[in-house]
Amino acid sequence: MQLKAFLIFGFTTICLIACTNDKPAADKQEQASSNSTHDTKIKELETKLQEEPQADSVREQLLVNLVQTNQYDKAIAQADLLLQKQPGNPAYLFMKADALERKGDTSNAITTYQQAIQSAVVFNEAELRLASLYAETGNKTAVILCDALLKDAAAAEMRSDILFVKAAYYSKVKEVAKALSIYNQIIREDYTYMEAYIEKGLLFYDQQKYTEAWKSFQQSTNVSNKYADGYFWMAKAEEKMNKTKEAIDNYKRSLALDQNITEAKDALKRLGEIK
Q1: Phi, psi dihedral angles at 65 (to 5 degrees)
Q2: Do residues 185 and 179 lie in contact, with contact meaning Cβ atoms separated by under 8 Å?
Q3: Domain-located, residue 25
Q4: pLDDT tens digit string along 196-242?
Q5: pLDDT tens across 60-97, in order?
Q6: Which of 21, 25, 46, 155 is geometrically suited to a Cys-Cys bond with 124, CB 3.0 to 4.6 A?
Q7: In a domain, 157, yes or no
Q8: What b-and-e string marks burial along 7-21, b requiring 16 or more CB atoms within 10 Å of the CB?
Q9: Domain that holds residue 231
Q10: Average model confidence (pLDDT) for the chain?
Q11: pLDDT tens digits, residue range 232-271?
Q12: What is the pLDDT of residue 39?
């Protein structure tokens, strides 16, 4: 599940993660440069901590960089060190939960988000992340949390994401009509919320309603003609409709925009377009 908003809490900015349908990634050269920068930064921060082991601000920066380089166990260890000094710090609990979620440890992530919420009393970002995890597991608590957030004026900036999580729950439990209704609502209120078009299309796709699915995927590329995922899913629907030429063209478009869509490469190989 890919949420749109970037959440800001205290000293750090953390992006909500995708469980499905990731946004197009940076190209390999840019990614390699970014990783190199993070590696250098991590070494610098580790050196500083050896000199000043009580410097919490340095440890916070290290934790963030470890998460950004997918070193989740090390990030969790740093969060635990921070929490030893400040057991109830909601920001530290949030950061630990974020690392656990990215690692795939859903159960412990849920528990830690709950601790962060309890500690902060009001922590809308953590509540949304918690709702997202519940939605993924088909737990109706997701809807309860989302409905509460929708009534909270302080969470107004996250409205589209809250609705998206609520729709994801209904999609997970196969209440398709409710999910479609909410995805349509998101699109009406925020037509640039690209993931809503894809998830709406996937509901039709899973029901083998490929024409309706294609229309939703195609709408996303009308909003942005640089949206690689939209072209990829258009191609998937076109294959199902036996529109091979159109599918090939759109697989190529998706790859031109994002070389990391390996499924598009595989499809073109299967269709005899590339070796």
Answers
A1: -65, -35
A2: no
A3: no
A4: 999 999 999 999 999 999 999 999 999 999 999 999 999 999 999 99
A5: 999 999 999 999 999 999 999 999 999 999 999 999 99
A6: 155
A7: yes
A8: bebeebebebeebee
A9: 193-275
A10: 88
A11: 999 999 999 999 999 999 999 999 999 999 999 999 999 9
A12: 80
Residue where a domain terminates, one of 132, 163, 190: 190
Same-domain pairing of 185 and 60: yes
Could you tell me the CATH number of the domain that includes residue 92?
A: 1.25.40.10
Environment class of residue 107 by beta-carbon count within 10 Å: exposed (0-12), middle (13-18) or buried (19+)? exposed
Inside any domain, residue 166: yes
Domain-embedded: residue 26: no
Q: Are 159 and 209 contained in the same domain?
A: no
Quick one: pLDDT at residue 193?
A: 97
Tokens describing residue 65: 């960089």
Alpha-carbon span 239 to 256, nearest angstrom? 19
Q: How many CB atoms are closer than 10 A to CB 192?
A: 12
| pTM beyond 0.85 | no
Residues 50 and 179 in one domain: yes
Q: How far is CA 168 from CA 3, 45, 234, in A?
A: 11, 39, 21
226 to 24, 77, 197, 258, 267: CA distances (angstroms): 10, 39, 15, 9, 20
Distance CA 240, CA 242 (A): 5
Neighbouring residues of 147: CB distance < 8 A, sequence distance ≥ 6:
166
Total tally of structural domains belonging to the chain: 2
| 154 and 202 part of one domain | no
